[in-house]
Design goal:
By secondary structure, the protein is mainly beta. It is built from three helices and ten strands, in the order βββαββββααβββ. The model has no long low-confidence stretch (mean pLDDT 94).
Length: 179
């Protein structure tokens, strides 16, 4: 069995691999009250630490460059059971990561110089979320310590001697984040 997130509806589906194709075994739809938004958060990544799953929105503008604050959301669920008996339950959401990552860049938290990654410019209204210049999170994973999260950016990319490199940013306290 495996979980799939629909990035348009804030819905998680449980599928049975052995069944091949067909309807999901279970679904969970997270409500506007839980997520703090009436729109989709554009789920782009999920990572597991113990029995906690952290789901991440893209945090980027939409494809027209319009600011979409609802996408600046992480939410956590717990997972229990296995196979068709798998259950997930909402734990909480966090909506300040976007601003904190931009401030980290502005304040030279990485040691490359203030605004070296260009995150504020990449997230500005009117900027498309595409690489190399836009702001868009596409991946998320926990480090082996189970508490540090790695944010994988589609954009912006980092130019190193004419080569565009993907940006990965560590967040040391993902499991401690709350609204």
């Amino acid at each position: 069995h495996f979980l799939v997130a629909n990035d348009e509806t804030n819905t998680i589906f449980l599928y049975d691999v052995a069944a091949g194709t067909g309807a999901p075994v279970k679904t969970w739809t997270f409500t506007p009250a839980q997520l703090g938004t009436s729109s989709e958060i554009d789920i782009e990544g999920v990572a597991r630490s113990g029995d906690t799953l952290v789901w991440m929105g893209s945090h980027g503008n939409n494809r027209e460059g319009e600011v979409r604050t609802e996408r600046r959301t992480l939410f956590a669920t717990t997972i229990s059971g296995s196979g068709a008996s798998t259950e997930i339950a909402f734990v909480g959401r966090y909506t300040s990561l976007w601003q904190q990552v931009i401030q980290w860049d502005q304040n030279n938290g990485h040691g490359r110089g203030a605004n070296a990654l260009g995150l504020a410019a990449a997230a500005a209204p009117g900027v498309l979320p595409n690489a190399p210049d836009g702001f868009n999170l596409e991946g998320f994973e926990f480090a082996p310590d189970g508490t540090t999260g790695y944010l994988g950016f589609r954009g912006p990319t980092v130019d190193e001697e004419g080569v565009e490199l993907a940006l990965i940013v560590p967040v040391t306290n993902v499991l401690d984040l709350n609204t």
